[in-house]
Amino acid sequence: QSALTSIAAFAFAILAAVSAQAQCPVTELISGLQRPLGSTISNKNNLIVAESGTATPNSGRISIIDLTGNRRTLLAGLPSGIAVEGGGEPSGPSGVAMRGRTLYLAIGVGDAVLAGPGPGTVIPNPNPSSPLLSSVLKIHFSAAAEMITSGFTLSAADQQTLADGQRVSLSNGGGDKVKIELVANFPNSTPNPLPGFEGNVRASNPFALVIVANRLYVTDGGQNLVRQVNLAHGSFSTLVTFPRIPNPLPFGPPEIDAVPTGIVFSDGKLLVTLFRGFPFPPGSSTVEKVDPTTGSHSPLIDGLKTAIGVLPVTSTADDEGTDPSYLVLEHSSGNVLDGPGILSQFATPTDPPVVIANCLMKPTSMTLDSRTGTLYVTELPGRIVSIPVDAVAFDDCDSGVDIVRALTPFVRNTATRGLVRLGDDVMIAGFILGSNGTDNELRTVIRAIGPSLAGAGVAGTLQDPMLQLHDANGALIVANDNWKDTQRAELEASGLAPTNDRESAILRTLSPGNYTAIVRSVSGSTGVALVEVYLLN
User: Fold this and answer.
1) Ramachandran region, residue 456 (left: φ > 0; alpha: ψ -120 to 50; beta: rest)
2) For residues 505 and 14, which has the higher predicted lDDT (pLDDT)?
3) pLDDT at 86
4) What integer is the mean pLDDT of 53-81?
5) Secondary structure of 243-257 in the HEC alphabet?
6) Per-residue CA distances from 95 to 9, 187, 201 (Å)
7) Peptide bond into 128 cis (omega under 30)
8) Largest CA distance in the chain
9) Dist. CA 338–CA 456, nearest whole Å
10) b/e map 11-37, b = 16+ CB within 10 Å
11) Does the structure show a pLDDT above 80 at 399?
12) pTM to 2 decimals?
């Protein structure tokens, strides 16, 4: 049985009185949501929250919640259904990730499978509530829509249109519009024959996702794997499948599932939380570090109970360039799935955790407002709470690139590495420049590095990268192929000129805002490239 669907079976229970030693620095932002599972924060400083819905099929929704606790519907009528393995609770919208004005949304298994003829057996549902269960949707909306929308509703006909590979554009008559596309439609189940019942299946259950360059990585708690999706054309494959482990407890099955849940990108690696399956033995849950190019993985943090999210953060007290600490969110702390959820901070992966809050009610996701150092946690019973944390910078999980914070006159750098192929199969790196409070003209160097990576031991490097810089609306600001062709003197004076003539670089004075750097292949070459952003002032 999938632990993600088991979460639903153990719905909100009344918490026992908190002891004097309990840590509970939480403030309720909003309640009454419909089983929120995923959240992110937009560049308009609103929380974008995915809700599984109610007992009514296709009642999933995306809500916009401002930081004073006011909720509006962005999109209703999203795919959902009652999960057979979830104790009769709805499964639908789950993980969310944003790049600019585009939201990527994972949809859970819903009612795509049914109880089989015997105990513990599962069969495909011939008539699921939606053709879009176990999928990823792409939702584009304007800043105006986010600020003024009265909401949109996806109809059954719209869902079928999306399943057929066509785009759906919705308008609510108020002048704001939203466009929706199907990015990937995963199998709802895979064969899992059992002795005496060959027709048994294992359900899928997409849970969380992260954008890294031109790839989308999606955890699947039902299939125990992470999928990678090519955003250019929607093809997908399995990056890594996590093995089952022996059950150390005297009850339950002999082996337990991995159940990957949360996923983020940090320092060139994917960090994936493994929740583990029934009976959820204490100490068996881990945070895994996964190579996005090979799928190889190893534990980063172990000894956890029910890890459902991880977030690398840099403390205000840290010196520039120090390694991040890690916030880890655990769904429950007691026997099976009883007991309060816990938020802990690990100064290093091997240090003992410092408990920040141990009074959470079935937490499901967390997102950090880096402007204020406030963490927002969604809870399964329908609440979002805020928690102050000593952190002002974190890895931008939507772009795979660190957020650049212009706080002092100092060279600050962020970078990400990825594979560049031909045509539109490019590497995309979004970054945000914030005001330093005194100067809104920010001298910035963006570089696309390829051939010189070989000297650092990187195999299969891109031999001829080209760099493009776009503004928040997608308009091209400037492009460069070989860095010596333009701005040679300025780049050399900055000390950031590339070491190979075929590499690309741009020095530009930019205003605070959102930007996108795109690395393309030139001369038919393909391979690994590095895109870097340096803030000079």
Assistant:
1) alpha
2) 505
3) 64
4) 96
5) CCEECCCCCCCCEEC
6) 19, 18, 24
7) no
8) 75
9) 48
10) eeeeeeeeeeeebeebeebbeebbbbb
11) no
12) 0.72
Token pair, residue 56, equals: 């009514």
Instruction: Write the secondary structure of 26-61 as one string of H (helix), E (strand) and C (coil).
Output: CEEEECCCCCEEEEEECCCCCEEEEECCCCCCCCEE
* In the block, residue with structure tokens 């590495």: 417
Backbone angles phi, psi at 91, to 5 degrees: -130, 130
Full strand arrangement of the beta sheet holding 27-30:
27-30, 383-388, 374-379, 363-369
Degrees, nearest 5: CA angle 257-260-266: 145
* Radius of gyration of the chain measured on its C-alpha atoms: 23
Cα distance between the two ends of the chain = 54
Strands (E) across 186-338 are located at 189-191, 201-203, 206-212, 215-220, 225-230, 236-241, 245-246, 255-256, 260-266, 269-274, 285-290, 297-304, 307-314, 325-330
Rounded mean pLDDT, 247-268: 94
Contacts of residue 319, defined as CB under 8 A and 6 or more positions apart, other chains included, come to none
Residue 488 CA to residue 490 CA, distance in Å, equals 6
Helix ranges (DSSP H) in 188-326: none
Considering only CA atoms, which of 106, 138, 328 is closest in space to residue 218? 106
Among residues 513, 368, 508, the alpha carbon closest in space to that of 433 is found at 513
* The token pair that represents 398 in the structure block: 């939507």
**pLDDT tens readout for residues 441-483:** 788 999 999 998 887 778 889 999 999 999 888 889 999 999 9
Query: What is the C-alpha to C-alpha distance for residues 425 and 519, in angstroms, rounded to an integer?
Result: 10
Dist. CA 79–CA 58, nearest whole Å:
4
Tokens 């994972």 — which residue?
106
